[in-house]
Design goal:
alpha+beta; transmembrane; transmembrane helix
Length: 756
């Protein structure tokens, strides 16, 4: 119906020829607008509808942006709205000039933080068409799901629904159930594909999956007045994700070669010598050299950006520092519904496996006669799963015996455990002058850190900063030992040298360490225009003098003829002397064991510094190789951690790494090892340098579930939480990031890095 008055109601005297012509043109335009509006609401060639919405539809960002469809189907309406939205100013001596045209906006302003009027036109037109036909509500459904992913209040849905911007909250629940059914169907299809791959029943490429599971909990405070029947409680459960495996060798998950290796019982070959020989010390030396070069390039301004690029290129090259870089690809992760099963017991871990593959993926027990499935978690989860396999080993059914499960310890909790070990060994409770260690370094930096609290990022940043400071100091020391007289010449006016010993004497002149170090790389200095080869040689000297076990042993100055019994007797003698001192004077504080307890020439303080730099280097290599996707570097550090965990009172991880070493050396076939290494990390965002640990991914999925639906009085296996929220959590996070990306609000958001 036209909003203009009919011609009969307009007196002819009120219209001149021009006005009449304009009236006719407007009425003709409205007729065309009516046609285009009807076309936009058409089921076949119009705008998308919300009914039957699936994650495959929402994951495609092109479906979220409907501007092209609107421009194609309704060009006149789009032109009218563009005229309103964009500023048009006539330029003197020329035709009409359009500022901020749709083409300029779509291409030039994307991602610049400037609002795009074409998106306003898209949403406005979607709202108007939905009033015309309520079934044409795809944009409104997307907005509602987006609001749900952002934990919006119900009032927001009511207000947005009233203005046509969103569907109602009840309609949203219906769409979420449909999306949940879509997610469960995808899980079922994945299980079917894995079985068909194991039996070679499909011509398509083989497809397998890994199960990642972790505990979830929330505190249920029912009332201030607790009774026997009604009381506060901690509700525990399990959340899990299925990660589609990539780059899997053919028949890698065939159980026959794996079972044959177990029957050979070659575990006796796992000796200390075999574990030491498994460590690639040459590779660790090369990577340590590269890490020192990275630090020097980051803190010395004189080193060119080209040199920094060359160093980074070596970390990407398998001929230099890279060991086993993973192929760049975007990982596919499917969320499971949560359950109230506590996976911290052997029975609970076994029941979790049944719930995931038997109940949710609907895989039949007989399928596992020819199939192995990776199951990843933290150390406790893996231990309980291994215990469950031992307890159920006598079961006749392969499925019930859980022989098809391959527990794989995941890397984020391992990294956290090693960081705790680092602080456990190198954090001294007392802070004194001339005392090296994490506590002394954190105090000097003004960092307030409590190692007893699991503050990962604070501890990580402190260890990294202290290590970098020590590397720069060690580099300055090495350069001074090479060019001592050059340094004296430069700073001759501010140094005092002892006449007899030729050593520097303390003065009131203070020189910043980085300034002094940078001075050796400026014009006229020994390292001016330093080449990559010369910088690498310098870094090798630093590594060999401060970051190896051999250097630590040299700091003790122990003669070759000194055996372990002599060392033991020296330590026992020092302990006895302390005991005797307290017997004569009980109130006196006995002196601590000094480095002379081992040998008269030992320098235990320098030895502790070397050990700290060595251990921190291992940790930082572990931490930096993960986002770069070099699982080979990670594996080389794990070979060292087999010993480090035992030496830092982390025997639980030490035992698990010994079990893993036994499996990799004697049980896992080569194809299975390759499949595990190629999928030990997840790449959800598809952005270079954003690889993640699988359990880290799961932890943030757990956090997202609690953020989206944090009702305290519901159990983890409640229908809405299990079948609607948790099973859709990966899709919800993906939709949130996709919509923000389409709107140009951010190139990549935090949740894109976390949940893909």
């Amino acid at each position: 119906m036209s909003l203009l008055p009919p011609f009969e109601d307009v007196h002819s005297s009120r219209l001149n020829s021009r006005e009449g012509l304009e009236e006719w043109m407007v009425r003709g335009t409205l007729i065309q607008v009516e046609r285009e509006a009807e076309a936009l609401a058409d089921n076949e060639r119009g705008l998308n509808r919300g009914a039957g919405m699936t994650w495959d539809l929402l994951d495609d960002t092109s479906n979220l942006d409907q501007r092209h469809t609107m421009q194609t189907v309704a060009p006149v309406i789009w032109a009218i709205m563009s005229t309103i939205a964009f500023l048009h100013r006539p330029s003197s001596g020329s035709n009409l000039v359009t500022l901020n045209s749709p083409e300029q906006t779509a291409e030039g302003k994307k991602g610049t933080g400037v609002r795009d009027p074409t998106f306003g036109m898209m949403f406005a037109l979607s709202i108007l068409v939905s009033f015309r036909n309520p079934l044409v509500n795809f944009v409104q459904c997307v907005v509602a799901v987006f609001l749900f992913a952002c934990s919006a209040h119900k009032t927001v849905y009511r207000a947005f629904n009233r203005i046509g911007m969103s569907v109602s909250h009840s309609t949203l629940h219906g769409h979420l159930k449909d999306l949940g059914a879509s997610s469960r169907a995808a899980l079922k299809t994945l299980g079917q594909r894995a079985y068909e791959s194991s039996k070679q029943l499909t011509k398509e490429p083989q497809q397998y999956f890994m199960l990642i599971f972790d505990n979830v909990n929330k505190y249920h405070a029912v009332s201030r007045r607790q009774t026997v029947a009604v009381k506060n409680e901690m509700k525990n459960g399990t959340a899990a994700t299925a990660v589609v495996l990539e780059d899997v060798p053919l028949d890698a998950f065939d159980p026959k070669p794996y079972m044959d290796n177990i029957k050979q019982n070659n575990h006796a070959g796992l000796t200390i010598k075999a574990l030491f020989d498994d460590i690639d010390n040459k590779h660790l030396s090369r990577v340590g050299t590269g890490m020192i070069m990275r630090i020097l390039c980051a803190y010395i301004p004189a080193l060119s950006g080209e040199l920094h690029s060359q160093v980074e290129a070596r970390f990407q090259s398998t001929e230099h520092y890279a060991k086993h870089p993973l192929r760049l690809r975007q990982s596919i992760a499917l969320s499971f519904g949560t359950s109230s099963i506590e996976e911290n017991t052997p029975r609970g871990a076994s029941n979790v496996m049944h719930d995931l593959v038997g109940t949710q993926m609907e895989m039949q027990p007989k399928w596992f006669d020819n199939l192995l499935v990776l199951a990843g978690g933290d150390q406790l989860s893996v231990k309980q799963l291994e215990t469950a396999k031992k307890c159920k080993a006598t079961e006749k059914s392969v499925y019930e015996s859980r022989k098809w499960v391959l527990p794989i310890i995941q890397l984020w909790h391992m990294k956290l455990a090693y960081l705790r070990s680092l602080f456990r060994v190198h954090w001294f409770n007392t802070v004194q002058s001339r005392l090296f260690g994490l506590h002394h370094g954190a105090d000097a930096l003004g960092r307030h850190i409590n190692p007893a609290v699991n503050d990962f990022y604070a501890c990580h940043n402190a260890a990294k900063t202290i290590f970098e400071t020590m590397v720069l100091t060690a580099t300055l020391y090495v350069i001074l030992s090479m060019f001592y007289f050059y340094w004296v010449l430069i700073y001759s006016s501010s140094v005092v040298i002892h006449e007899d010993t030729k050593r520097l004497l303390p003065t009131d002149n203070i020189h910043h360490m980085i300034t002094e170090l940078s001075g050796f790389f400026t014009k006229g200095a020994p390292f001016h225009k330093c080449s990559l080869e010369r910088l690498e040689t310098l870094a090798e000297h630093v590594y060999e003098r401060f970051m190896t076990t051999a250097v630590y042993q040299k700091t003790l100055c122990l003669p070759n003829t000194l055996d372990a019994n002599t060392l033991r007797s020296n330590v026992l003698k020092a302990l006895q002397d302390n005991f005797d001192a307290r017997q004569h004077n009980p109130g006196a504080i006995p002196p601590k064991l000094s480095s002379t307890s081992l040998h008269s020439n030992s320098d235990q303080m320098l030895g502790n510094l070397v050990l700290f730099m060595r251990d921190t280097f291992m940790y930082l290599e572990f931490a930096s190789a993960i986002p770069q996707g070099d699982i080979g570097q990670v594996m080389e550090v794990i070979k060292v951690l087999r010993f480090s965990f035992y030496g830092s009172h982390a025997q639980n991880y030490g035992k698990e790494l010994l079990e893993m070493a036994c499996r990799f050396m004697f049980e896992y076939p080569a194809k299975l090892q390759t499949a595990i290494l190629n999928n030990w990390l997840i790449y959800p965002s598809g952005l270079n340098g954003h690889w993640q640990e699988n359990d880290f991914f799961q932890e943030h999925s757990n956090k997202a579930v609690k953020t989206v639906f944090n009702t305290k009085n519901s159990d983890w296996d409640s229908p809405f939480l299990r079948d609607t929220v948790s099973v859709n959590i990966c899709g919800l996070s993906q939709l949130k990031d996709n919509l923000l990306h389409v709107l140009g609000l951010a190139n990549v958001t935090i949740s894109a890095i976390i949940l893909g």
